[in-house]
Write a structure and sequence with these properties.
homodimer, Rossmann fold
Chain lengths: 435, 435
């Protein structure tokens, strides 16, 4: 029988899982700091909800994992969280605006698995729903900046643009077949320069305009704005205001790159958009991306509600930061009863320590003290408490510091005081120890 | 278009989600304290893995949500975590024993939704794999006890039994069709007494033995052990040792009820088993249950490996404890720029506060200060920082304590010091404030 996980999925064993939880926790802290609240939706939706026109786009709809319920209705696993959230908003029209929600969830797409892109993958994201303002777009960017920094990603850049700007430019340059044109723009770094240019020409009625467009796209931002200011004033000013607020929010200038070739794949974006790349590892794809989608919620709710959001690809982030996260053991203290008859004492001691807030564990599988200590070492345990003949008789506890290879005899009270003095346990979701 | 979640599933909006996270976090703290480490497996498995004979049992296999992948292979959503974990162990034969793993995960069963039982439901559970010892069974019980207590469940009882004991008793009483007999035992509290007794008779060749069995099952534990000691000495002693260790682990005596009519539904249990009921709300079903399953891992790995575990039903727990958990807002501080031109100052202030570890948010959707303050009140915000004409001119910040309805003018440094002195922010996964 096949014992593997299905193609494109994987198990997260504790060492890896703990690192993931540390990174997810840091993301959450940032989201919370900006006032975003957590939401969770079911793993599957009615298929018609997921397939709603204008959302993911036709190409991606075919990547939905779908199945029928017992009543014959079609269900599908969620492929992102923006769509279920749009459905939730439609279901709850009386929610106070702005709605500031975050999620850290798994989702599923039937794509061909590749590096950093699994069929079951995880995203940490936020949505800000109800207000259209440059400040909100900048907040999303600043929050992403903080999250990536806190998550341990050092060198990255935001490539930012605006769908409205692309619209305006395309109209000016008399582009035909606009959706296909956008798809090609998106492939600028994936195709060779010659190939890309060749394909680009097809969209221009006037070859001279194509030359002008090529010159434009290869220009610096200042030159671009100068040459399109006459017909795209509003759009340029919006984008520059987003950049301005982002700096006020604390995003360093060098992280911000305006780039009119950035389009984002998803059809539902309407305004400000961005993608994030690790410097020198652009081939890994976008680490985090998002933008404004002022029409999507309306598709579900019937009322137009502006919205903006972003999602961080956790699997890709883990590829970058995993090595730099130390994965300490979950417990620092292992109690070693040297005889079966001492197990009762070990249990009682464990109960007292845990009651005091001290995590610990009991070793009972190995016979000799040598094997017990070597087991403790392979777990990376810091302290062993040895319960032998003498210790039981004298009611003492031998605390062995495995790092220093030193052993101290303690009374119960002294033992607890010593541990509390030397180790401070503050519980977090990942059982991590602070200071 | 249908905007509902699929039958038997639901959305968790922030207020509810936060409470769930608090409870889950408390469970995790307890699991970590006992040395259990987190594991995560994919949402779906190859169907043959889930359907493996001897696992969930035939009746439940039909409740799997299943679908085909593009290559035509059948996949199924996980219905519990014990089965995927057994598969992981088979995949990783060199893991150090004992393996102590926990999970807090969603799973899916195609059952008819009922109170406290959804089609997408959540469990928090642990598995201890590699050692057969009464101490381990007791540890599982003690950990469940601690988790329920910390999770806020006040009055509950463990009904404990042993599959080996039921085996022995059934043999002694010459039971025919043992699996069906177990199923009927399980229904003791679901059928009327008359109905149950009537059905019970069918399993006895000798009617006198049925009378004896009925007398036995209605006896106190002391009488039971006395009458079956001659043929079930080993099994009684094992169970009593589990009880003994449990008390050493700190489980109060009154929570422990031996009950030979407890069988647990799942086929894979082989030894110690338990179910947990809230006192006076037994009709809600079991809050947490588990037991020893020494043969399941072997089905997957080919090598017999003893194991024991338990799972807590999070949805049922939430029904009980939800009301008693206070759901504070995610941020305490709302910055109110009174004019659009003050938004830049608001952004800069928010950036400084967040840099100092202080969560805050900016209100920009409402025009009048009255509306802004009333919005803050409906969110339950503790402090508002007002940025008006005077404040901008004099570089002061008016901190309004919404609870006391008092307003203080501060310099930036004084503002930060005041907040830090009065509110201490320590970040946890749920953005909760300690102390």
């Amino acid at each position: 029988m096949e014992m593997k996980t299905p193609k494109g999925t994987k198990d997260y064993l504790p060492e890896e899982m703990k690192k993931r939880k540390i990174v997810m926790k840091r993301f959450e802290e940032v989201f919370n700091k900006y006032g975003y609240k957590e939401i969770w939706t079911p793993a599957f939706e009615y298929l018609e909800v997921l397939e709603k026109k204008g959302g993911l786009g036709e190409e991606s709809v075919k990547d939905i994992y779908k199945f029928q319920d017992k009543g014959g209705r079609w269900l599908g696993l969620r492929f992102d969280m923006t769509t279920p959230i749009a459905r939730v908003i439609a279901n709850n029209p009386n929610l106070l605006k702005p709605i500031k929600w975050y999620y850290i969830s798994n989702m599923w797409r039937y794509e061909n698995p590749q590096r950093g892109r699994l069929r079951e993958f995880w995203q940490a994201g936020v949505e800000n729903i109800g207000i259209k303002d440059e400040l909100i777009d900048a907040e999303i960017l600043a929050l992403t900046y903080d999250a990536l920094k806190k998550g341990g990603v050092k060198e990255f850049i935001f490539k930012i643009n605006s769908r409205e700007l692309i619209d305006k430019i395309s109209k000016y340059y008399k582009i035909k077949n606009y959706p296909e044109f956008c798809k090609l723009l998106d492939k600028k770094d994936k195709l060779t320069k010659i190939e890309w240019k060749k394909n680009l020409k097809k969209f221009f009625i006037d070859k001279n305009l194509c030359v002008g467009f090529l010159r434009l796209i290869e220009s610096q931002w200042d030159e671009i704005t100068e040459s399109i200011y006459s017909f795209a004033k509003k759009e340029i000013e919006y984008l520059e205001k987003v950049v301005d607020y982002s700096k006020d929010f604390g995003v360093k200038k060098k992280y911000l790159v305006e780039d009119i070739s950035i389009v984002r794949g998803l059809e539902y974006y309407t305004g400000f958009i961005f993608e994030t790349f690790k410097k020198g590892e652009e081939h890994l794809g976008s680490l985090a991306s998002g933008g404004r989608y002022d029409n999507l919620i309306g598709l579900y709710s019937g009322t137009k509600i502006p919205a903006t959001g972003m999602a961080i690809g956790i699997d890709r982030i883990m590829e970058i930061v995993s090595k730099s996260i130390s994965s300490k053991p979950y417990v620092d203290i292992l109690i070693l009863p040297l005889k079966d008859s001492f197990k009762k004492s070990a249990v009682r001691l464990s109960s007292i320590l845990r009651e005091e807030g001290i995590p610990c564990d009991i070793e009972i599988g190995r016979k000799s003290i040598k094997k017990k200590l070597s087991y403790a070492n392979s777990l990376g345990i810091k302290y062993c408490i040895i319960l032998g003949e003498d210790e039981i008789k004298n009611k003492t506890y031998s605390l062995k510091n495995m790092e220093e290879n030193k052993q101290y005899p303690f009374s119960l009270d002294d033992l607890i005081n010593y541990i509390k003095k030397n180790e401070r346990y503050v519980w977090s979701r990942i059982g991590q120890k602070f200071i």
